[in-house]
Write a structure and sequence with these properties.
This protein is an alpha+beta fold. The protein has helices at residues 15-18, 61-68, 121-126, 128-131, 135-157, 196-204, 243-264, 266-271, 288-298, 311-325, 376-385, 394-397, 414-422, and strands at residues 22-34, 38-45, 48-55, 75-84, 92-103, 161-162, 168-169, 180-184, 187-191, 209-217, 230-239, 285-287, 329-333, 356-361, 364-371, 407-413. The chain has 13 helices and 16 strands. The strands form three sheets. An eight-stranded mixed β-sheet has the order 6-10-11-16-15-14-13-12, sandwiched between helices. A five-stranded mixed barrel has the order 1-2-3-5-4.
Length: 442
Amino acid sequence: MSFSLRTHYTSQIDPKTMNGAEVTLAGWVYEVRDLGGICFVVLRDREGRAQITLVKKRTDPELLETARALVRESVITTTATVKAEAKAPGGYELIPKEINLLNEAESPLPMDTTGKVEAELDTRLDSRFMDLRRDRTTAIFKIRHETLQAVRKYLSDNGFIDVTSPKVVATATEGGTSLFPITYFDREAFLNQSPQLFKQILMSGGLDKVFEIGPIFRAEEHDTRRHLNEATSIDIEASFCDHFDVMTILENMIAHVYAHVKEHASGSLEILDIDLQVPTVPFPKITYDEALEIVNAHGEEMLKWGDDLSTLSEHTIGEHVFNEMGVSHYFIIDWPTDIKPFYAMPYEDRPKFSKSFDMMHRTMELSSGAQRIHVHDMLKKRIESQGLDPGGFDFYLKAFRYGMPPHAGWGIGCERLVMTMLGVENIRDVVLFPRDRRRLSP
């Protein structure tokens, strides 16, 4: 018998205009309810669920027996007639002409997909293919998709060119030891920590405004709910800009992403029971010095000038800003030059401070950025001052010798953006196959 595997998703059927129409749906068996005189099979696809109704007195006995024998999470198609039914999912039920079993699932299942029995995170990640059959998990990744769609559209509409930098590099991007070494033919190479150096080189090339969405790798031995060893970074670099210019781009992009998700992922937000509020721009700006004052006045630790902010301090500042200003997003600006990367531009009149910023959420840091040093000799000295060998950065420094414009940029973690938007507590929930200290498979 020849048949089309699918003509519609469950969400594409309008009972008002398609009542009596014949359709073919494909998906997984979510549930079978055999009540004797009537049998219900609930089919689930990516977009929702549909109820297949088989009344014993009006159904071919062989078809009814096929339905009753279906095992949960098996793959099926059904060709059926649409019948408006207000009580059924989507406002319709399907009266089947045929049900075809394409692949029977083994039993027992590695985890429950109905949400009635909650599984531990490790169990869900070990069987991510099954976890994705849960409505809440699918909803998160549909929102992640819309987030990245919105980022690409916003940046493209604002004159940015989409680029791709190498992920296998000969030297550390920003210095330090948090690198994954790999064997590259007969020599050592590393997985890239950031596209930073390459996007700056592109400014010398005259591309003017670039963005990249791609993986970054950090060999840091974190084991927290908000760190990964492989993450997706959204990066921009723009010429003839200072740090305030790119802060404006960043805050407007965040507001655009929230508005886009609210409009285009409303069904997924409803599944997650989230009433998404679009943040108001501009975001407040507090200086590093003001941030220290907040921590020392209201926090549980005392910081001195030049200290970086701990997770506890970030939380103290975030709560203070939220309570005082009623906002969840804000900037910390004017950081000490010595605790920022070598490429951050110091202020001309106060070189101990840099033209750098972090964009914060109430719960964590989301983004770091700065105006960059564009003068070759100054940049070389900064590399040396941080104990690094300028010789290892020849490919990078060369671009600054032949006409590098002033430029600025930032990077923001896609996963942190999504998890703070949705109030997700563990970053692994917003990554399909997370990589951390303990997890390398699947």
